[in-house]
Amino acid sequence: MKIATFNINGVKARLPRLLEWLDEFQPDVACLQEIKSVDENFPRLEIEAAGWKVETHGQKSFNGVALISKHEIADIRRGLPALDGSEETEDEQARYIEATIKGVRIASIYLPNGNPQPGPKFDYKLAWMDRLIKQAERLLATEMPVVLAGDYNVIPEDVDCYSPSAWVDDALFQPESRAKLRTLTYLGYLDAIRQIKPAGPAFTFWDYQAGAWQKDNGIRIDHLMLSPQAADLLKDAQVDRKPRGKEKASDHTPVWVELDI
């Protein structure tokens, strides 16, 4: 079972590239972020016509997440619960969708950027991460295989950045952001890419400016975090750099994990 995460950076603008990648790579599940579309305007018909099932949690012009699957998508949750587990009522930003596919609980996550920091946006990022951590705890209690996939907007280590000095003041690089991501590992979740490639760069994002792609000036912010039950099934995990080099590409590239299911 191949599960991929892909920040598409505007699904309408990237639809030809998305359909091309789905056809070539054939993931069982694709977790999309930054679809930048309300649910009713998502290009569902075009994607379903290619044989895929689709569930979205959208927002006009910003954010938005989706699940695209070859298989049935069941027990769907849109939005994170509050810290106490009560249903989400206040967060207007569409950043989280979760469902069960082939016996695996899968979430597509678009974590807040948090810039500029310090400030309200960074505070929102950290508070959002607290709610994600609580939901990750609840999911562990189900004892299902869980994959928390998405654009985390966190650079975990210096090696995950082409130039730490260039990012030292950025919200993605702050000790507080990194510490909350590490909290997931303390709960028992494993970073899929680092299970396969323990050292060295594995960039997933290159800015459109200053020839970042051509110079390989990238960062690693797209992650697949595996519960112990999912990690036991791990066969492979890789960054698929090919889509980033194409015309009208997203500034992110897909990252995928293969589970023995």
Would you kindly provide a written description of the structure presented here, covering whatever features stand out?
By secondary structure, the chain is of the alpha+beta class. It has a single domain, classed as Endonuclease/exonuclease/phosphatase (Deoxyribonuclease I, Chain A, 4-Layer Sandwich), CATH 3.60.10.10. It is 28% helix and 26% strand. It contains eight helices and 14 strands. The strands form three sheets. Strands 3-4-2-1-14-13 form a six-stranded mixed sheet. The chain has a six-stranded mixed sheet with strand order 5-6-7-8-12-9. The chain has a two-stranded antiparallel ribbon with strand order 10-11. Helix 3 packs parallel to helix 5. The longest helix has 22 residues. The relative contact order is 0.16.
